[in-house]
């Protein structure tokens, strides 16, 4: 059974494990070892995860009571994160999470949703009709990452 629900603070250990494992196994093909280490180390910023859960629209996808992915929307229409566990890719979880995030932005009165997406996730976002506004370098913990600014009209 697939269930999508809002995240709670108790979910943080599962969310951070998916974050670290997905980056080190899935995104690793598109970024340097140093970038991957730096990005994945964000899993340990527990205060930041607490803040995201408290202040964003943060949802998790569960399959038989196991969290297999998560997504969050901040500032009303900024699609801030979307991660699916490496062992559960291409099973429709990413799309389900995306649809609910988009519906939330629409329900909050926004006509456009924006995101900064990784090289790895770009084909998925383009497949879902997101348009690339520009390619740029984004600084994360002192390292530059190549990302794509995208948007979609809802
Ligand atoms: C991007 C991501 C969330 C997609 O999750 P997913 O659950 O595998 O996606 P879905 O199963 O819902 O994919 C639905 C469709 O999107 C397209 N798609 C998904 N991943 C794709 C990829 N890597 N390349 C091309 N198309 C892709 C396909 O059309 C797919 O349908 P199909 O499997 O029937 O061909 C997942 O790959 C991920 O977590 N990536 C790493 C983390 C990341 O970079 N996140 C974004 C940064 S914020």
UniProtKB/TrEMBL annotation:
Stretches assigned to the N-acetyltransferase domain: 2-154
Sections of the chain in a coiled coil: none
Q: Does the keyword Coiled coil apply?
A: no
State the Pfam families in the record. Answer: Acetyltransf_10 (PF13673)
At the top level, the lineage of the source is: Bacteria
Is Transmembrane one of the keywords?
A: no
**Gene3D superfamilies hit by this protein:** 3.40.630.30
Question: Which PROSITE patterns does the UniProt record give?
Answer: GNAT (PS51186)
Which keywords does the record carry? Transferase
Molecular function in Gene Ontology = acyltransferase activity, transferring groups other than amino-acyl groups
Protein name, please? GNAT family N-acetyltransferase
């Amino acid at each position: 059974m697939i269930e999508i629900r809002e995240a709670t603070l108790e979910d943080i250990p599962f969310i951070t494990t998916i974050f670290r494992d997905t980056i080190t196994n899935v995104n690793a093909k598109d970024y340097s070892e140093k970038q991957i280490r730096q990005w994945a180390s964000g899993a340990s910023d527990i205060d930041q995860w607490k803040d995201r859960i408290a202040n964003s629209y943060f949802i998790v996808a569960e399959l038989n009571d196991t969290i297999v992915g998560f997504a969050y929307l901040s500032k009303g229409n900024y699609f801030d994160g979307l991660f699916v566990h490496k062992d559960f890719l291409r099973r429709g979880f990413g799309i389900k999470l995306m649809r609910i995030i988009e519906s939330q932005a629409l329900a909050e009165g926004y006509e456009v949703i924006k995101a900064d997406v990784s090289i790895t996730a770009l084909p998925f976002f383009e497949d879902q009709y997101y348009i690339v506004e520009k390619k740029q370098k984004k600084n994360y913990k002192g390292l530059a990452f190549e990302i794509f600014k995208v948007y979609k009209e809802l």
